[in-house]
Amino acid sequence: MRVTIQQVKDIIKEADLSSVDPETLLKDVSLSKQGVDSLEKTTIFFLIEEKYAIKISDSLYQELDTIEAIMEYLNKNLPQDK
């Protein structure tokens, strides 16, 4: 399974952020710098964990601060279709 930028954005939409419009988020700029607060990021990671049945260590939350970084992490850590 390959995760795309759009799939990550779709999950962010599900998080129902009050601070930003997910469609305006840039893939390579820090979510924090784009106005996503820490509680919203936690919600995003919770939804990702739920959708993909994966556990993301809390210590990675700071590192995974762009849509692109989240996508790359998922593509490295999810089982790949054969």
Automatic annotation (TrEMBL):
InterPro entries: ACP-like_sf, PP-bd_ACP. It holds the Pfam family PP-binding. Residues 1-78 form the Carrier domain. Gene3D superfamilies: ACP-like. It comes from the Bacteria. This is Acyl carrier protein. It comes from Rhodocytophaga rosea.
